Amino acid sequence: MPTDITNVIASRDMTWTRVDGVEFPVAAYVGDLNYVDSSDPDIEGQWTASIQVLGPSINYAVTTVYGSDSVQALYHTLALVRTILSSSMIASQIDFAILPNFGFPTLLTTGDVIVPTDS
Question: Could you give the CA distance from residue 91 to residue 106 in angstroms, rounded to a whole number?
Fold first, then answer.
C-alpha cells in the first residue's frame, strides 16, 4: 500500500476482514523524526514525526505530530495511530484489534506518571 511519507522508519501491516470474509489491507506508517529549527517560538526546539494510516474507510492524510524531544514525538505519533484505528468504523474487524489498543501506546495522563521513590 503506497504512502505519501517519503522516509518511512516504521510501519504495521494489518488486515480488515469483512463479515463476508473478504480481506483488505490496512497499514500505518511512521516517518522520520526531525528537530524543528524555526523562528516560530511555539515550535522552536520541538521534534516531529509524521504518520499516515491507510485502509478502507480510514484513509488519513499525512499528519505531523510534535513532541518536546524525539522520544515524546515518537510516542505521541504511535498513540495517534491507535486513536485513528480505534475510532474507525471497521476497528473491531482489523486483525490487530485482538491486542489492547492495536498494540500501540495510549497517551499518559497525569495519574499514569510513575514517580520513583527512595528505597
Answer: 16
> Residue 64: what pLDDT?
92
Q: Quickly count: other Cβ atoms within 10 Å of residue 16's Cβ.
A: 21
Note the pLDDT tens digit of each residue in 30-76: 999 999 887 877 777 889 999 999 998 888 889 999 998 999 999 99
d(CA 111, CA 52): 29
Q: Which residues contact 57 (CB under 8 A, 6 or more apart)?
A: 88, 89, 90
Under DSSP, the state recorded for 115 is -
Helices (H), the chain: 70-86
Nearest to 28 by CA among 56, 57, 54: 54
CA dist 83 and 28 (Å) reads 12
Beta-bridge partners for 29:
11, 52
- Rounded-to-integer distance, Cα 106 and Cα 75, Å: 9
